Amino acid sequence: MARTILITGCSDGGLGAALATAFQQRGDRVFATARNPAKMPSLKAAGMETLALDVLSDDSIKACVAQVSSLTGGSLDMLINNAGAGYSMPLMDADIEEIDKLFRLNILAVIRTTQLFLPLLRAAEHGAMVVNQTSVVTVLNMPWQASYGASKAGLASITATLRLELEPFNIKVVDLRTGAVKSMLFENMRKRYETELPKDSIYKPIEGKISEVIAGDFSMELMEPNTWATRVVGDLSKQSPPLQIWRGVSATQAWLASFFPAWLFQTAWSRR
Q1: Signal sequence span per UniProt (predicted)?
Q2: Cα–Cα distance between 56 and 103 in angstroms, integer?
């Protein structure tokens, strides 16, 4: 059955755009959104409905809700909270204002977007679904990634509670824990942040190694976004979708990590 699906953060080259394409290929009606619709040319060229949505603006979210309501007759089958950002820096060198912005986007914006779309989700004829894009870093505590990991871990906790609170209204809530996938995350970070450490950083002796991580220069092979999206859409199209979906390189290892003692991974990272 074709569903109506709204996805946040669908700029070309990102995971939201890959999901939008995969859902459209399945036959679903997709509303691809971004703060700037001009950044979704490939989706628009594919005949997809593209809408403006700035998840940090109440006015923008309300305007998008009104548009979707008009287009669907007042309901929405699935909301995918994909919009987000990253920030890599040793915690002792991190900019508090940047951490504050990160938490507003990765956590508070998800809560507010879901609040405002709730009436449309409740009106879905066969029940609805909310999908929150978290990350494997909710389990794998990686050096220099604490701010990002904390924001995603916070969202994972909120997702688990939201699942309980929305279950009585026939709304399922899924935690999408994504591993290493090719995306615009680190490219966007390089545009926004300096990859150099502060001059007085205590980590100056290993700045070269840290800068590689900050810039996203990993040695591991990343999963293609279309492969990831196709698998995720398959998971979300099951009659009973998993409460947590683990997809992407290192996702399986992260899932296994949740069953192992903390000291094991502390030792592994310390040696690295």
Answers
A1: none
A2: 11
**Is residue 100 one of the residues assigned to a domain?**
yes
Give the number of other Cβ atoms within 10 Å of residue 271's Cβ.
Answer: 6
Exactly one of 44, 101, 152, 193 is catalytic; name it.
152
Cβ contacts of residue 80 below 8 Å, gap of 6+?
Answer: 5, 6, 7, 8, 16, 19, 131, 133, 176
Q: What is the dihedral of CA 182, 137, 94, 184, to 10 degrees?
A: 10
**CATH (domain of 46):** 3.40.50.720
Assigned domain for 210 exists: no
204 is catalytic: no
The residue segments making up the domain with residue 141 are: 4-185+223-271
Residue 178 pairs with which residues in a beta bridge? 247
pLDDT tens per residue across span 125-148 = 999 999 999 999 998 888 889 999
DSSP per-residue string spanning 74-88: S--SEEEE-------
In a domain, 200, yes or no: no
Domain presence at residue 214: no
Burial class (CB in 10 A: 0-12, 13-18, 19+), 78: buried
Which residue shows structure tokens 């994972």? 156
Q: Count of domains in the chain?
A: 1
Q: Is 272 exposed, middle or buried (0-12, 13-18, 19+ CB in 10 A)?
A: exposed
Of 148, 204, 209, 238, the active-site residue reads 148
The pair phi, psi for residue 143, each rounded to 5°, is: -55, 145
> Is-catalytic flag, 148?
yes
